[in-house]
Design goal:
heterodimer; A: globular; B: Nucleotidyltransferase, domain 5; Rossmann fold; 17 helices; 31% helix
Chain lengths: 161, 713
């Protein structure tokens, strides 16, 4: 029943919607068509035509590329099939020394690099930082999640793919 | 009431968030009311439209009206709107070093006050009000005064001068000064103000300087800070609006100055030095009116309830005592302005109704459609169904007599939207759903009333309920059902009762200072004498300040009456009661004992006599003084009771849906009801500005003051 214009959703995504309005949106019942408007706003932002199916992070999307469904950066770089962990094809910075950790925590305590390392996953083409994970040294790269796209569209959005 | 030959002597005008109400009163207590939409941009427009509406009802021109009256009272929304829209003065702040972040930190409750219960629970929605002074224009200066008023660190004057110069360079329009414990000893605030004024004149600038001890020297830093900031921030536009009101009044021949209402229930001229004390004035009128009606009907325990478009305000007078709230909220800022205490819940005819399509949960508000766009049936662009739409759908509101026919209600339009957005989702009929929504609103108000009464520790059967506000009578039956009030009263002038209440107020000043006087339970004569001397010295200072202000406002000294008061508690308690002193000075230990006895009497009245606890000793936390001067007041006329048959007011029959089915409800014109008349439900009693719904078998009778008494079957 609740519904907002695409412009309002665009402002919301960009973080430019004024606070009183943002709070009204937060307090109201969820708008039924939010997901599709949200995706439409993102689609306008990216420079390519493949339809976005699901946003993965701020600048990373699963999209329909021909017959394939791939994970794609906003710049257009493809990380391949969405069921495979896209992180494996990203450029990775591993911070596992005091010196490298100090670069991001210049004024505070550091994690112990023997117990924890920080991995930064970066688009090899445009250099956007897509994801950061903290894991114990030696722990395999985490596969965050593998979405059930068919089920999500059919059962939650009511519009089968 | 038809042939009025006299002219009105008082115009009371109350501009609410939605409507501006006018009441005209003559010396014999005749009155007429007028209504118009509030015009926040230029309040004078709404003021004039509303006054004209009332003048029409009286049958005179605006010129005749304004040239004949002695008093024009106006309580408006100018300052509140300045605050809400953050369009006030550009300010700077000088404070004690270390307290610079006080504005940003605020009080925790300021982040969620006014929120719905659901939003209070969801911390993600919490948000501090936007600060009135940005951090970069807040300067800390080294100084410290402790809680006893002793100087611990001297004022570093070079820091003050540097801060003042920075603020002047920043082109501020006002400099606020608030240092810690300035209410105990203002010496540093005074010196800071002096240095600021020197710097300002050296720079040739035109900047106002405000100090917290002058605005109100009362304990609690955050509220004192907020008060001085809001006074500096919002009052210039507020004063301009009030000046605009005075100008149009004078244009139509008014000879005197316009008066406005203080939050603690008195009148003052629009030149009042602390104009923020008039910000919370609208609903206060209702309590004053209630006290007045209470005297008339001989009951001093009253609940007054005001239902308008947005909120349901409840005020309590317990055995003649009104309660003072010392730290009210204004746009989520805690202030330290003494205010007549009101309990408020979001419940009004403008409440927007929502049905969650997934869970079918119905929620009322808290948003209100206001007057613009208003409910759907107003056909002014509103698209969300409201309670008023339900009232229209159920035939309780007359589509051709709303505001006397000025707005024709589009019932079909409302019905269609309500069906689409509410009743169809719920899977029930339109009428059933609409009545259910109204019952929810009335149940909210009903529960709120029960809660307020149970907080008084007095049985509901002692209380008389006064119901007013544009939609008070419309929902009166449901709001009051089953509580067991002694009596339930509404008024022909219900829609303008707050404005009426304002006209019963006197000119007033209220000055007070914080103090800390602890009197042991077994204090000897010497101690009592010493306490008394301290109290008397403060009262003398306050008397001088208050009387000087009133004389400056044009009142003759011999007309000014002064009554000192104390805020007292049993030692160790957290809340004060306000005690009107039975003496004007304390000259002996026995005088002090009289004051303590008075405190115990008041305490027993507002709580219960068994709750007294003198063994703990007594604490005086605040000393104050109220100065008043009389004003001409309306008197309600008493007329003999006539026949009980209300046929002379009968104007037809209308289909109305009440209690699950359609009834043929008798229709009466409220203004034509005479003392003695009795109406039995189902019936609808209409007035251009309000509607009273009488449920089946319930009765309404009109007493000799022409007050309407509602009796549940």
């Amino acid at each position: 029943m609740t519904s907002y214009s695409k412009e309002v959703i665009a402002d919301l995504v960009a973080g430019t919607l004024p606070w009183p309005q943002t709070r009204r949106v937060m307090s109201a019942y969820k708008d039924d068509d939010r997901f599709f408007k949200y995706v439409a706003v993102l689609q306008d932002r990216v420079g390519w035509k493949d339809p976005i199916l699901l946003p993965v992070s701020d600048h990373l999307f699963i999209c329909q590329s021909g017959d394939e469904r791939v994970t794609k950066c906003e710049c257009g770089h493809s990380f391949g099939d969405y069921r495979k962990n896209w992180k494996l094809k990203a450029s990775i910075i591993v911070r596992d020394t005091e010196e490298s950790l100090r670069e991001i925590y210049p004024n505070s305590d550091l994690p112990d690099p023997d117990w924890m390392e920080i991995r930064e996953f970066i688009c090899p083409r445009c250099g956007t930082l897509h994801e950061v994970e903290a894991a114990a040294p030696g722990y395999p790269i985490v596969h965050d999640f593998e979405p059930d796209l068919e089920g999500f569209y059919r059962e939650w959005l009511g519009k089968p793919l | 009431m038809d042939q009025i030959t006299t002219n009105p002597i008082v115009i009371g005008i109350d501009a609410g968030g939605t409507m501006t109400d006018t009441i005209l009163v003559d010396q014999d207590g005749h009155f007429k009311i007028g209504k118009s939409a509030t015009t926040p941009k230029n309040e004078a427009e709404g003021f004039l439209a509303s006054a004209e509406d009332a003048a029409d009802a009286w049958g005179i021109s605006l010129q005749d009206l304004f040239s004949g009256v002695n008093v024009v009272l106006y309580s408006g929304t100018g300052m509140l709107n300045t605050l809400l829209s953050r369009t006030g003065r550009k300010l700077g702040l000088i404070t004690t070093k270390g307290l610079e972040d006080m504005i940003l930190m605020g009080r925790g409750l300021q982040a969620w006050a006014d929120y719905s219960y659901a939003d209070r629970l969801h911390a993600v929605t919490h948000h501090h009000p936007d600060p009135l002074v940005p951090r970069r224009r807040t300067h800390g200066v080294t100084e410290r005064i402790d809680q006893f008023g002793d100087v611990i660190l001297p004022l570093y004057e070079h820091e003050v001068a540097a801060a003042a110069r920075k603020l002047i360079a920043d082109k501020v329009e006002g400099i606020c000064i608030m240092t810690i414990f300035a209410h105990v000893n203002p010496v540093h605030e005074k010196r800071i103000a002096e240095i600021c004024r020197q710097e300002i004149s050296a720079a040739g600038a035109d900047i106002l300087v405000y100090t917290s001890h002058e605005v109100r020297p009362v304990i609690r830093e955050q509220s004192r800070l907020n008060s001085v900031l809001i006074e500096a921030y919002a009052t210039s536009r507020g004063r301009k609006q009030l000046k605009g009101i005075e100008d149009v009044s004078k244009k139509y021949g008014f000879k005197y100055g316009v008066q406005t209402l203080l939050s603690f229930g008195g009148l003052t001229s629009i030149n009042h030095p602390r104009l923020h004390e008039t910000m919370i004035s609208g609903p206060i009128g209702g309590i004053l009116g209630a006290a007045y009606v209470g005297k008339l009907i001989g009951n001093d325990s009253l609940i007054c309830s005001d239902m308008g478009g947005t909120s349901f305000d409840m005020g309590v007078i317990t055995r003649g005592q009104t309660r003072i709230e010392n730290e009210p909220l204004m746009d989520r800022f805690k202030l330290n302005v003494p205010t007549l205490h009101l309990d408020t819940i979001g419940a009004g005819a403008g409440m927007i109704l929502k049905v969650d399509p997934l869970t079918k949960k119905v929620s009322l508000g808290p948003e209100s459609a206001g007057s613009d766009p208003g409910p759907i049936c107003f056909a002014k662009g509103g698209t969300e169904p409201t309670i008023a739409d339900c009232d229209a759908i159920l035939g309780r509101l007359n589509p051709h007599y709303f505001l006397g026919g000025k707005v024709v209600l589009q019932v079909e339009k409302a019905r269609k939207a309500f069906e689409e957005k509410c009743s169809r989702l719920l899977g029930v009929g339109v009428e059933e759903a609409a009545e259910g929504m109204i019952e929810m609103l009335e149940a909210d108000a009903n529960n709120a009333l029960r809660r307020v009464i149970s907080g008084q520790g007095i049985h509901p059967s002692e209380f008389t309920l006064l119901s007013y506000g544009g939609s008070g009578p419309l929902h009166l039956a449901g709001c009051s059902r089953g509580i067991g009030f002694k009596d339930i009263i509404t008024f022909q002038f219900a829609a303008a009762f707050s404005a009426f209440g304002c006209t019963t107020a006197d000119f007033m000043r209220r000055h007070s200072v914080s103090t800390q006087i602890d009197i042991g339970a077994r204090a000897g004569d010497d101690e009592l004498q010493a306490f008394g001397t301290r109290v008397t010295a403060v009262w003398d200072d306050l008397t001088k300040a208050a009387v000087d202000e009133m004389i400056a406002d044009g009142h003759a000294r011999e007309k000014i009456r002064t009554v000192p008061f104390l805020m007292m508690r049993y030692t160790g308690q957290l809340e004060d009661v306000e005690v009107m002193a039975p003496l004007s000075a304390v000259n002996s230990p026995d005088d002090m004992r009289k004051i303590i006895a008075e405190f115990e009497a008041v305490y027993a009245k507002v709580n219960h006599r068994v709750s007294r606890y003198g063994e703990a000793g007594f604490s005086i936390t605040e000393l104050g003084l109220i100065a008043t001067a009389d004003k001409v007041k309306p008197t309600l006329v008493k007329r003999p009771l006539g026949k009980s048959d209300p046929v002379s007011a009968h104007k037809g029959v209308r289909e109305a849906y009440i209690g699950g089915r359609w009834h043929k409800a008798d229709l009466y014109e409220m203004d034509l009801l005479q003392p003695g008349h009795e109406v039995t439900g189902p019936a609808i009693i209409e007035h251009p500005a309000t509607t009273l719904v009488v449920h089946p078998q319930d009765r309404v009778h009109v007493d000799e003051w022409t007050l309407l008494h509602y009796t549940h079957a």
